[in-house]
Structures are given as structure tokens and as C-alpha cells.
């Protein structure tokens, strides 16, 4: 019996993929995992936020 395991492809995009909550731009799952919050939700992307803000966490909402 052949197993149908889905391999994770970090650069592959999908129509139901992650989107930036700030501007709505599509981002990859890998980007969401790295720059998103603990739930892989992206609050700022390169289209609407600087990389400096993303690296420091300045794009994440304050609780």
C-alpha cells in the first residue's frame, strides 16, 4: 500500500496561503513562520513594513 504523505515546500504558494494582516499581500508559509507571530499570522510584510521593523518585532501588535 502506497503512503500519500504531503511534503512541505517552503517556497510553494497557494491560493489559500498566508496573507499580511496589514496590507493583504500574499506571503509564503516560510515567511509567516519566520516573521509572523506565534500563530504564524503576519502583521507586516516587505510591501508595507521595513525589514528593520520585522527583525525587531516592531510590526507585531502590542498586547
Automatic annotation (TrEMBL):
Pfam families: DUF7563 (PF24444). InterPro entries: DUF7563. The lineage of its organism: Archaea, Methanobacteriati, Methanobacteriota, Stenosarchaea group, Halobacteria. This is Small CPxCG-related zinc finger protein.
Amino acid at each position: 500500500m502506497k503512503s500519500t504523505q504531503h511534503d512541505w515546500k517552503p517556497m510553494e504558494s497557494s491560493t489559500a496561503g498566508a496573507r499580511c494582516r496589514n496590507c493583504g499581500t500574499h506571503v509564503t508559509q516560510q515567511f509567516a513562520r519566520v516573521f509572523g507571530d506565534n500563530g504564524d499570522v503576519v502583521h507586516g510584510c516587505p510591501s508595507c513594513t521595513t525589514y528593520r521593523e520585522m527583525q525587531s518585532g516592531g510590526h507585531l501588535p502590542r498586547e
